[in-house]
Design goal:
- The chain has 2 domains: 153 residues, D-amino Acid Aminotransferase, Chain A, domain 1 (2-Layer Sandwich), CATH 3.30.470; 121 residues, OB fold (Dihydrolipoamide Acetyltransferase, E2P).
- It is built from 5 helices and 20 strands.
- Strands 12, 13, 14, 15, 16, 17 and 20 form a 7-stranded antiparallel β-sheet that branches. Strands 3, 4, 5, 6, 7 and 8 form a 6-stranded mixed β-sheet that branches.
- The protein starts with a strand and ends with a strand.
- The relative contact order is 0.15.
Amino acid sequence: MAATLTQERFTGPEWLFERKFDGIRLLEFKQGSDVRLFSRNRLPQSIPSVAEAIAKLPIDDAILDGEVTWRGNTEYHVFDVMWLNGRDVRSLPLEARRALLDGLPLRAPLQRVASLDDPKPWERASTEGWEGVIAKRRDSSYEHRRSPHWLKMKCEATQELVVGGFTDPQGGRVGLGALLVGYYVPRQNSGPTERESKGDQNDFVFAGKVGTGFDTKLLLDLRARLDTLEVAKSPFTKAIGLPRVRAHWVRPEIVVQVAFIEWTVHGKLRHSRLLGVCP
């Protein structure tokens, strides 16, 4: 079962949260004293300390799911069970499967993945330098697919960016589709241009689109404000990948705070979302 990446941040009684470890996925198959370890794509793995610890567990057979890390010591972080003592438990709700794991006497390097009780676990992840958190529905069965019942919230970077345009809304959306944002860098050329002689020596670089993080009121308020700033031509002076249709250009006066996972190799925001409009 694989988690689906989400840009949303939420909590609720139907969800539990776990730390996302920065390791590799490891599936364990135990039959008596025979233990086999596989990566997520079913490649055999040789980790003697983990195999020996699983072999010593007082159970006849099991299939466990988890993640192995090597920071300091090898650790196998077990977060799910698919089979236990001759029984296929994949159809049980997650909370029932976690209860089965609670009954296993896991000893180092085996470690049970605990649930998080923080009101905003993604903030703890950022503070403590984790890769992120996984949100899981308490009633979810174990599915062999990338499931919307497991959601991956990766830690984000934040940056202030300047709005240079926006796209039209589509479908049932109102106000605008996405903001077109950028940042300034010193212009590098062989001599001053007419613009530079007027004091503008920066390039305005297109950084990508921001299309999530809005509520209806903000969409409408922003559109009204942007309409007063509309200009005929794009203000971006370095702009690879600008939309060709349904785009509007504005004077770059509005600054927004944006969260994103990382910069792409092409210098664009990956998985961006709006945090707010700067005063």
